[in-house]
Write a structure and sequence with these properties.
With 112 residues, this protein is an alpha+beta fold. The protein contains 3 helices and 5 strands, in the order ββαβαββα. A 5-stranded mixed beta sheet has the order 2-1-5-3-4. It is globular, with a radius of gyration of 13 Å.
């Protein structure tokens, strides 16, 4: 059973958390099931960027992103080479280290 190590995030999990998840489960679903309330405005349908994460370790264990996810990620706040949408990141048997960005595109647009 893979683990997801979530690095501390000032609002969603200030201490960080390690959660057990099932292979085949998305990172987003696993976080929500463990009370890490990551945004998911499109209800995990690959139509927004609010569940954007950085996969700091284990990135290569995830299936490659598809064109729709890549197009969505182009709109994400703070995009970097380790970026994925957590709703599209399906766990294999490898542990992941995940960082939740400081902001989502929704937060940035609301604050300006």
């Amino acid at each position: 059973m893979p683990q997801i190590i979530i690095l501390p995030h000032h609002e969603l999990c200030p201490e960080g958390i390690v959660i057990e998840a099932q292979a085949g489960e998305t990172v987003c679903s696993a976080m929500l099931a463990n009370d890490v309330e990551i945004e998911h405005a499109c209800e995990m349908s690959n139509a927004c960027t609010t569940c954007h994460i950085y996969v700091r370790e284990g990135f290569d264990s995830l299936a490659e992103s598809d064109e729709t996810e890549d197009d969505m990620l182009d709109k994400a706040w703070g995009l970097d080479p380790d970026s994925r949408l957590s709703c599209q990141s399906v766990l294999g048997d490898t542990d992941l280290v995940v960082e939740i960005p400081k902001y989502t595109i929704n937060q940035v647009s609301e604050n300006h």
